[in-house]
Amino acid sequence: MIEEEVSTIISVIGKSKEELANISKKLHLGLSAEEMSLISSYFKNEGRDPTDVEVQAIAQAWSEHCSYKSSKIHLKKYIFGIGREKVVALGDAGLVSLDDDTAIAFKMESHNHPSAIEPYGGAATGVGGILRDILSMGAQPIAVTDFLYFGTKKVKGFPDPKFIEGGVVAGIRDYGNRVGIPTVSGGIVYSEMFSPNVLVNVGCVGVVDKKKIRSSAITEPGIVLIVAGGKTGRDGIHGVNMASAVIESGEEDITTVQLGSPITKEPLIHAVLEANEKNLLFALKDLGGGGLSSVVGEMLEAGGMGGKVYLEKVPLKEASMKPWEIWISESQERMLLAVKKENVNSVLGIMEDWDITSSVIGESENGNRLRIFYNGAKVLDLESQFMTSPKLYERPSLIEEKRIVQYLPSFPNNFAKLLLGMISDRNVRTREQVVRQYDHTVRGSTVIGPLAGIVGSEGPTDASVIRPNWNKVNGVAISHGSNPFYSKIDPYSGGKAAVDETVRNLISVGAEPLGFSDCLNSGNPEKHKVMGEFVEMVKGMHDSAYSLDIPFVSGNVSFYNEAGRRRIPTFPTILGVGKVEDIRGAITPDFKDPANDIYLVGLPTTDLAGSLYFRRLKKDGGRVPYSDPRTLKGRGWNLLNAMRSGTVNSAHDVSDGGIATTISEMTVGSEIGAALDVSALGLRTDFALFSEPQSSWIVEVRSGREKEFVKYMGEDAIFLGQTQQSALAITRGEDKILTVDIDQIRKKWKRGYE
Amino acid sequence: MEEGIRVNREVKVAIIVMEGTNNEEEAYQSFKHSEATPEIIHLKKLEDRKKKLSGYDIVCFPGGFSAGDYVRAGAVMAARIKSSLMRDMEEFVESGRPVIGSCNGFQTLVELGLVPNVDGDGRLEAALAPNMSNRFEARTVYLKINRGNSLFLREFKEGEVIKLPIAHSEGRFITRDKEVLGKIIKNRMNVVSYVDGSGKEAGYPWNPNGSEHNIAGIANKNGNVLGLMPHPERVFYKYTESDWTREINGTGMGNRFFTSAVQFVREKF
Question: Which fold has domain B12-268?
Answer without folding.
Answer: Rossmann fold (3.40.50)
